[in-house]
Each structure stands twice: as C-alpha cells, then as structure tokens.
Amino acid sequence: MMGCSVSATKSSEMAEQQVIQIMERFFEILDVDNYERNLLEEVVTEDFKIFEAGEVMDIERFHAFVTHVDPNVAPLSETSWTLSEFDISLDNDSAHVSYINRGIFKHGDEMTAKLHWMESAYLIKQTDGYKIRFLNSNVVSRDFDYK
Q: What is the pLDDT of residue 6?
C-alpha cells in the first residue's frame, strides 16, 4: 500500500513541476528577444483566453496586444518576469495554478516599468503535456521610472 502512495506523490510532484515549467516557458516566449506568435502554440490551447489589462483576449487579440508599439515611449528593449509563490491544484486532466509575477519592461534608456501581478491559470493535460487554456492577470502594483 505504501508504494502506491509514494508513486502518487512522485507523480503529483512531477505534474506540479510540469505546470511550473509551462508557466515559465509562456513568459520566456513573450520575452522581447524571443517572441514569435507561433511559439505560443507550444504552451496554450487552441481556445486559449487571457484576461489582461481589463480585457478578455483570444490568442490573436493577445498577439496584437503583445506586439503593439506605444508611440509615446521608445520600443521595448528588455523584458523579464520572475514567477514565485506557486499554489497548484491538480485533477486528472487539468491543473490550476496561482502565483506572483514580477516583471520589468525597459523602453531603451527612456523608461523602465516594474509591475507586480497576482495571476492564475487553468491548464489542460494533453498528450504532449499541459497547456494553458485560461490565464487571469491582475496588477497589484506598478512603478514607472522615467529618465
């Protein structure tokens, strides 16, 4: 009996690690140096939705949001995200994760934005691993440094 419990625990830990890796990969794909629309398909489902900046977006609308250039500041020159405080719930074919996300967005030497979000995501287990079906992003704080 004990062997089943250990096996289930290891399986659960592996699944949790996969969920974290998918979330981290999502933000790696969004990095200004890496971003390509087709890479999103590695980590999101076909019916992906995200709630970001007060708007529900599908993958195409999200792509437009990510690639939008603000004419009031220099183009993005550097992006980074740090995810922490993961809280993961697993089911047979899905997972829910909430976490803290801290991001830095540099617009040349002109401006740096630092944002802090509380985010949660619903992921679906597929044959090739977990994929994000829904991501909810809520800004906790933001700070802008103009030079």
A: 64
Amino acid at 59: I
> Scanning the structure block, which residue is given the tokens 């419990």?
5
- CA–CA dist 139, 45 (Å, integer): 24
Query: CA-CA distance, 112 to 96, in Å (whole number)?
Result: 31
Q: Is pLDDT at 1 greater than 50 in this prediction?
A: no
Question: In this structure, what token pair is assigned to residue 97?
Answer: 């994760």
Q: So where are the chain's domains? A: 2-146
pTM given for the model? 0.92
Q: Of 135, 105, 140, 104, whose CA–CA distance to 19 is shortest?
A: 135
Tokens, residue 38: 């087709």
Class of domain 2-146: alpha beta
